[in-house]
Design a protein that fits this description.
Elements (H helix, E strand, L loop, with lengths): L3 H40 L4 H15 L4 H21 L23 H20 L4 H9 L6 H81 L3 H64 L11 H14 L7 E8 L2 H8 L1 H17 L6 E4 L4 E7 L3 H16 L3 E3 L2 E3 L3 E7 L6 H17 L5 E3 L1
Parallel strand pairs: 6-7
Antiparallel strand pairs: 1-3, 1-6, 2-3, 4-5
Helix pairs in contact: 1-2, 2-3, 4-5, 4-6, 5-6, 6-7, 9-10
Length: 458
């Protein structure tokens, strides 16, 4: 006869199975409710007779109506669809292959869809021409030919608009910086030009003064020669010679005095030029430092102050070259916040931003100085750890996961639990950024679908 403990254990096991099954069905219900809401939004505007039914269904879905009410609304919607279809069949959305170069033309019924996809493709191609290696643009270009709904197209257009805005802001900043640099350079060149002009005028003045003194001395010597030739008395000749020599001496002394003044002015000007050049060197260094800081800032996520996707692309390229060296392993960890959309939808984007900032701080506090972490998506982070055994990286990943789980959030008086899932892999010789990322992403997928709040190795 079984022991009472066996029955108790079986009871607890059954209870846990029931709780797990209930949790799974709640997740399925949430997913279905989100799907209902999106389908209602996508169907609005097709026909005025259907809009009221769709609005009623969406409202009931938002207030978590029970199955009976939803079934009644679904039956009413079905009847309305049949009634409308009997009079004017609802047009079927056909994917417009003409949005892809070289594809066949779309039928007239989807001309608007076709033109929208074509315009989006042109915009993405223009963005790619500005940065051929931008991963986000390439991802959108690869997804565009495969979308099959207004919701999918709207998501791509929304991300495209963000890219256009970001690129426009970057170009505007670069133009402003270039204009500032050109203005500074123009001002400095004008200063140097002025100094050189003064120096040129000084040389010209010195030359003219020298010529004048030379002419004067020659004239005095000529007059003296004529006087000597015509003089008949020694005393008169001596007086004439003394007078002429005194005049020449005065002119030479005046010239020397002017030369001394010019030399002082030249020395002062040279000293000012040296000081100005030193100032220009300091300003150049300051400008270089500022541009370096701004360049570094362009590789930071503005919300979390972690690296962004561009900085990640640069770092992984470096680490892939390192992983070929012996005894220098590199581990990539891909993180995703669990149920983050629920936080945004329930408590607003400011609450979501606060969660992202706190998680970023938690990640930074648990890493070494030589490790790298970046935010590469809405709630997606990536890390690169260099020089650690794979098992040690796994241990750190689990510690970071526990650190996030221990964070405490309260929004609108309600405690909110935040967890993260992680997929990680080692970088291997022959890897590309995409191949390593895909392995980590596959491991993250298993962690998310295995219950979340877990770290899974590829």
């Amino acid at each position: 006869m079984p022991e009472p403990a066996d029955w108790k254990q079986k009871y607890h096991d059954s209870l846990r199975e029931m709780e797990s099954e209930e949790k799974r069905w709640r997740q399925i219900e949430q997913a279905l409710r989100r799907l209902i809401g999106r389908l209602c939004a996508a169907g609005m505007g097709i026909d005025l007779q259907l809009d009221d039914e769709l609005a009623a269904l969406a409202a009931a879905n938002r207030r978590n109506a029970d199955a009976t009410e939803l079934e009644q609304l679904a039956e009413s919607l079905t009847m309305a669809v049949r009634a409308v279809d009997a009079v004017s069949p609802v047009p079927t959305i056909v994917i417009a292959p003409a949005a892809v170069p070289g594809a066949k033309a779309a039928p007239a019924s989807v001309a608007r869809w076709d033109s929208t996809c074509t315009a989006a493709a042109k915009i993405l191609q223009s963005l790619r021409s500005l940065d051929a290696d931008d991963a986000v643009t390439l991802d959108l270009m690869s997804k565009l030919p495969h979308i099959s709904s207004d919701v999918g197209l709207a998501a791509i257009l929304d991300k495209t608009a963000e890219l256009v805005h970001t690129r426009g802001a970057t170009l505007a900043l670069e133009c402003a910086q270039a204009a500032s640099v050109l203005t500074e350079v123009t001002n400095r060149l004008e200063e140097v030009s002025g100094l050189l002009a003064e120096s040129g005028m000084d040389v010209r003045s010195r030359f003219e003064d020298t010529v004048s003194v030379n002419d004067s001395v020659i004239s005095q010597v000529r007059e003296l020669t004529e006087a000597v030739n015509s003089a008949t008395e020694l005393a008169v000749l001596q007086t004439l010679v003394n007078a002429r020599l005194e005049t020449v001496t005065e002119q030479v002394q005046a010239f020397r005095s002017r030369e001394e003044d010019r030399q002082l002015e030249h020395t002062g000007r040279a000293e000012r030029m040296v000081a100005r050049i030193a100032d220009l060197e300091r300003e150049t260094q300051d400008l270089t430092s500022k541009l370096h800081r701004e360049k570094h800032g362009a590789r930071l996520d503005p919300l979390t102050r972690l690296g962004n996707r561009k900085s990640f692309d640069e770092r992984i390229a470096l680490d892939l070259s390192r992983c070929a060296q012996p005894n220098l392993p590199v581990t990539m960890l891909l993180w995703d916040l669990d149920n983050f959309k629920v936080v945004n939808d329930s408590y607003g984007h400011r609450a979501g931003d606060r969660v992202l900032q706190s998680v970023a701080t938690c990640f930074l506090s648990g890493l070494r100085a030589e490790d790298f972490v970046a935010r590469i998506g809405g709630e997606e982070f990536v890390m690169l750890m260099t020089g650690l055994p794979f098992a040690k990286s796994q241990q750190i990943a689990d510690e970071l996961r526990g650190g996030v789980e221990s964070l405490r959030f309260h929004f609108r008086g309600t405690p909110v639990r935040v967890t993260v899932s992680c997929g990680f892999t080692d970088l291997r010789p022959g890897d590309t950024p995409d191949s390593a990322f895909d392995r980590a992403d596959a491991a993250l997928y298993r962690a998310k679908h295995g219950g979340k709040n877990a770290c899974i190795a590829a």
